[in-house]
Task: inverse folding
């Protein structure tokens, strides 16, 4: 897809979403270093912003997403707000999950976000269920399932693709292949070079896309979402992408080289490429880009202040909502 | 009142709830045209159609996960896992997803989902098709566990389970399906989380559930004739949340308790009942609490061996007699 096919507003919106995700994730990184997260180290998606922004830009508010332990970007792109997200990460009562869920279970049901999941591959069948429900209720919603290269080897991946295909469910399976499942290089433990190859096994469309190119992601997602909405069934999109940081923040990445990381950041960064493209095409002025970045940082900072000033949950209420 | 089999009671409950609420649907292996491996959805596909009674592939994790996704987005699924032994294949979806999502998401969602399954030994189906795994699930916060012993209880409790806005695991017993009993006509519900005294008595309390209720009642009847013992049998019906009030009241009367269960003795349901009773009624106990349970052994195939592992009426009688001497 070329930039000419989208309006300047749309293009700036895509850029802004990516900028906001990065600003949010970077603020989470400093919150962690400052010891405010008190919990398991968060799983940040810095580097992968184009996938979240590109896919979610195609979706309606009433479409569903299911995401992973690395789900902050998807959640924000789908419409979650920074304040309750950071409050949740900081374990406060004002968080999306009232402090009960934390980073890996962020959900914002009002914006169709059925939740992040701490179990690799667990979201795929749940997304199928949302798809089944859509079809059952005769609606034209779509369910998008975000998952990683690691999940593509779980049994649930295979069960879910089969079931969605057999029942023609309106599900789009989006694999963010960031090459590593924690320390394990995907190609070393996988039978197929591309996750998208597996779509053939379930007789559904499968396509590989440059996950660092937000327009390519947007175009591919638009096609897959329309396909599902028009009741042709599920498809699989594999976005080749890269996380700049570790699996979690305590992961110092001994399994890859700093050169490799530098290469992705320097030559393939989704934000950098896109803002340069928009400026070159006169859809954006450099000052505007700076302003977008500053606004995002302010928004993240405001959210952090809100989170840190928020009340803690009451221990007496710990057994609420078990059922 | 009409006499129905346990199986017919289940079918009746499913049929009535499918009729009553268009959001209710069944999902499981062979539940559709075939009517279910245990024939518990017989006729429902023919009456309600393939959208309401769906055949799934052999994909337990996807069946449960799908049911969860549907429950999160406006529907009221009844997922069937053919044998409780197969829940091991989808434990993550049951324990980490279904049971926990309401809590983890801070109450943003409710999960109106019923997981129907069946367990139990006595048909020489061997170790992977005969287990009683209820203790595992009763141990998971966020999951209600219901195990009716009679057709009337089965119908009333299943209807209640379907109307609950939280996950309920409804565990049937393969030897109960053909048993018959009086079932009220018309609409009725039995509340989840309420035990019932199935037989009144003065001398000893027996706390039990599911198929063992029948064996305990037989033991009670025989002991009355043989030894003049008056045995009170309490059917727990729901294992989680457990209604212990009738058990405490009974123990305060009799001073003696026997727990009867089909699961393995160690770390089983009886251990939980025993623990709660000694917490609440310690001063009332005239002797140690007895547990009758399966041996800690995989269930063997040959009926001679199977009988040796699973509690029999004689084992229950021995334990009751032992408790009263």
Result:
């Amino acid at each position: 897809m070329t930039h000419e096919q989208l309006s300047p507003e749309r293009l700036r919106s895509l850029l802004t979403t990516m900028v906001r995700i990065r600003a949010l994730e970077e603020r989470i990184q400093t919150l962690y270093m400052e010891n405010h997260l008190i919990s398991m180290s968060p799983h940040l998606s810095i580097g992968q912003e184009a996938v979240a922004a590109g896919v979610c830009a195609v979706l309606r508010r009433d479409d569903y997403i299911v995401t992973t332990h690395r789900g902050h970007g998807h959640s924000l792109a789908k419409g979650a707000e920074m304040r309750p997200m950071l409050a949740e990460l900081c374990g406060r009562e004002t968080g999306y999950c009232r402090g009960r869920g934390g980073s890996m279970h962020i959900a914002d049901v009002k914006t169709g976000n059925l939740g992040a999941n701490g179990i690799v591959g667990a979201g795929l069948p749940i997304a199928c269920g949302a798809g089944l429900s859509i079809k059952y209720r005769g609606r034209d919603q779509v369910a998008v399932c975000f998952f990683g290269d690691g999940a593509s080897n779980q049994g649930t991946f295979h069960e879910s693709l089969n079931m969605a295909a057999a029942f023609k469910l309106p599900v789009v399976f989006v694999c963010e292949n960031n090459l590593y499942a924690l320390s394990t290089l995907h190609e070393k433990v996988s039978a197929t070079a591309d996750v998208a190859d597996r779509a053939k096994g379930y007789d559904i469309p499968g396509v590989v896309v440059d996950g660092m190119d937000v327009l390519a992601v947007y175009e591919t997602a638009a096609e897959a979402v329309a396909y599902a909405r028009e009741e042709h069934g599920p498809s699989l999109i594999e976005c080749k992408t890269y996380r700049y940081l570790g699996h979690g923040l305590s992961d110092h990445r001994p399994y890859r080289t700093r050169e490799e990381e530098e290469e992705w950041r320097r030559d393939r960064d989704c934000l950098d490429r896109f803002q340069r493209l928009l400026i070159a095409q006169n859809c954006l002025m450099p000052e505007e880009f700076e302003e977008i970045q500053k606004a995002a940082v302010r928004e993240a900072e405001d959210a952090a202040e809100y989170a840190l000033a928020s009340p803690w949950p009451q221990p007496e209420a710990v057994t609420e909502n078990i059922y | 009142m009409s006499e129905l089999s346990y199986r017919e009671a289940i079918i009746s409950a499913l049929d009535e709830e499918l009729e009553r609420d268009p959001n209710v649907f069944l999902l499981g292996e062979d539940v559709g045209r075939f009517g279910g491996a245990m024939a518990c959805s017989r006729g429902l596909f023919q009456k309600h159609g393939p959208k309401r009674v769906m055949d799934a592939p052999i994909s337990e994790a996807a069946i449960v996960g799908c049911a969860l996704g549907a429950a999160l987005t406006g529907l009221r699924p009844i997922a069937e896992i053919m044998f409780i032994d197969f829940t091991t294949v989808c434990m993550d979806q049951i324990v980490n997803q279904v049971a926990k999502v309401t809590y983890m998401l801070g109450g943003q969602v409710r999960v109106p989902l019923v997981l129907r399954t069946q367990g139990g030994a006595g048909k020489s189906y061997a170790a992977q098709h005969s287990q009683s795994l209820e203790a595992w699930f009763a141990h998971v916060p966020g999951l209600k566990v219901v195990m009716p012993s009679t057709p009337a209880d089965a119908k009333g409790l299943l209807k209640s389970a379907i109307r609950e806005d939280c996950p309920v695991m409804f565990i049937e017993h393969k030897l109960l399906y053909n048993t018959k009993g009086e079932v009220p006509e018309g609409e009725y519900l039995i509340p989840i989380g309420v035990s019932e005294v199935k037989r009144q008595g003065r001398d000893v309390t027996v706390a039990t559930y599911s198929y063992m209720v029948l064996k305990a009642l037989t033991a009670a009847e025989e002991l009355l004739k043989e030894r003049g013992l008056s045995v009170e049998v309490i059917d727990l019906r729901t294992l989680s949340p457990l209604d212990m009030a009738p058990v405490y009241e009974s123990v305060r009367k009799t001073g003696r308790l026997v727990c009867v269960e089909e699961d393995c003795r160690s770390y089983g349901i009886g251990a939980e009942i025993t623990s709660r009773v000694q917490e609440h009624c310690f001063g009332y106990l005239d002797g140690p609490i007895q547990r009758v349970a399966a041996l800690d052994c995989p269930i063997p195939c040959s009926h001679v061996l199977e009988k040796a592992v699973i509690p029999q009426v004689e084992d229950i009688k021995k334990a009751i007699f032992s408790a009263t001497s």
About this structure: Chain B has twelve helices and 14 strands. The domain at 2-183 of chain B is CATH 3.40.50.970 (Rossmann fold). The interface with chain A takes residues 25, 51, 56-57, 59, 61-75, 77, 92-93, 96-97, 101-109, 141-142, 144, 165-167 of chain B (CB under 8 Å). The two ends of chain B are 41 Å apart (CA to CA).
